[in-house]
Amino acid sequence: MPATSAELRQLAADADRAADAARDAAANAARDVTDTGLRVAFGAVANALSIADTVRDAAHDVRAAHEVSAAVLATGDDAACAARLAPLAAAAVSASVDALLAPHRADSVLFDVVLDAHAGTAPVLEADRAERSARTAAVLALRVADLVDAIAAAGQVAAAPASLRAGNSAASVWERRAVRLRVSAVAALHGLPEAGRWAEEWEYDMAQLPEGWAQFRWALSLRLHAPRTIRRAAVAKKRVPAPSAPPSGG
Amino acid sequence: MAGSDPRMTLQTLKVLREMVAAPTHSHYGLELVEAAGLPSGTIYPILARLEKADWVSSGWEDVDPSVVKRPRRRFYMLTGRGAQRARAELAAAGMTMPSVRPEPTGVSLPGRLRPLET
After folding, report:
1. pLDDT tens, residue by residue, A42-68
2. B94: which chain A residues are within 8 Å (Cβ-Cβ)?
3. Shortest CA distance from A199: residue in chain B
4. Which of A53, A232, B11, B19 is the most buried (most CB within 10 A)?
5. What is the CATH number of the domain that holds B21?
């Protein structure tokens, strides 16, 4: 549990390293996505080419059937014509069916490509987010380290009660900050009927965490995001159509 | 009355996946923070949205805070509609459906959140 500025600076360095690792993970994931995407795309292209070949062959068969039919009819040999036309006609029908199915197959292949692309993008986004979080944590840790240094320089730490300086004083500092953040989060819900409910719920949940840094991190995330989103949702819930304009006076 | 469906994000799906894994279990916020691996600032708004959409119901732990000397715990549980829609959304997103976990014991639940005895 970081307590001194040196520990906080170490934490900042750790967070920076984590951010680097996240960036590498993002790059790796992006490469994987690219590889996978290309592989799938090449597969799709190969399928599309194969389907196009089938359609082209079918068209050729139909043309051949017509030519043979014309030639046979020209000889007047109806029996030979029927005998030779039968397999060609079957092939033509089969080709027509293939031609009808081809666009659907192509759609299906493209749909798979899109799904794969989405599935592959998720880890990249997660890794990007992890990097941003780690960088933010690093900056925050450095700021807090500066604050701890400033307090130490001003002699405020030395002036703290002996009970705080001894034992778990660091945990108490973080716990007090966590409580302030949680109270501030509830205050940011001022005016919402459910503010009291969140206050009690958050008080219980925070108390379940180990005192100190863990509570501070929990409360910081809560303060930064929860009230704004909850308030926005509540405002959207209350939104009603605008009343009609009052009658103009005079 | 059922609200409109909540906006489906990756974070919302992660929360739903944890709740679907134990559909009759009453979850609470911090537990979902840890299970879904999401920050606290994300979990509570998601729970509020799911509750507004009637996918989740919530209630207080059945204790007297003045007796137990601590605040009450707020429990969340999937509604029938929520469980059904959550499974459909998880399947549509291609997320692995978790195997149903056994019911934890030793928690005092309010009556309306307690699983039905069979």
Report:
1. 555 555 555 545 545 555 555 555 555
2. 115, 119
3. B71
4. B19
5. 1.10.10.10
User: Contact, A131 vs A26, CB < 8 A?
Assistant: yes
Domain count, chain B: 1
Beta bridge partners, B27, equal B76
Q: Name the nearest CA neighbour of B20 among B75, B74, B73, B89.
A: B89
Reported ipTM exceeds the 0.85 cut:
no
Q: Where are the domains of chain A?
A: 5-156, 160-237
Q: What residues contact residue B48 under an 8 Å CB cut-off, 6+ apart?
A: A194, A229, A230, A233
A182-195 burial, b for 16+ CB within 10 Å, e for fewer? beebbebbeebeeb
- The Cα-based distances of B98 to A120, B20, B78 in angstroms read 21, 7, 15
Q: What is the pLDDT of residue A33?
A: 54
The letter for the amino acid at A163 is: S
- Say if residue A6's pLDDT is above 80: no
User: Which residue range(s) make up the domain with B61?
Assistant: 10-93
A122-167 tens-digit pLDDT: 666 666 666 676 667 666 766 666 666 555 555 544 444 444 444 4
Give residues 16 to 45 of B whose Cβ lies within 8 Å of A: 28-30, 33, 39-42, 44-45
Instruction: Please give the helix or strand (H or E) that residue B69 lies within, else none.
Output: none
Q: Which of A119, A126, A201 sits opposite B29 (nearest CB)?
A: A201
The predicted structure's pLDDT at residue B12: 93
Q: Is A222 on the interface with B (CB under 8 A)?
A: yes
Q: Which strand (E) or helix (H) includes residue A160? A: none
CA of A225 to nearest chain B CA: how many angstroms apart? 5
For residue B30, give the nearest of A184, A218, A179 by alpha carbon. Answer: A218
Query: Half-sphere exposure of A203 toward its Cβ, with a 13 Å CA cutoff?
Result: 13
- Cβ distance A200 to B33 less than 8 Å, yes or no, reads no
Q: CB–CB of B94 and A207 under 8 A?
A: no
* 3-state class (DSSP) for residue B78: strand
Residue pointed to by tokens 């959550």:
B86
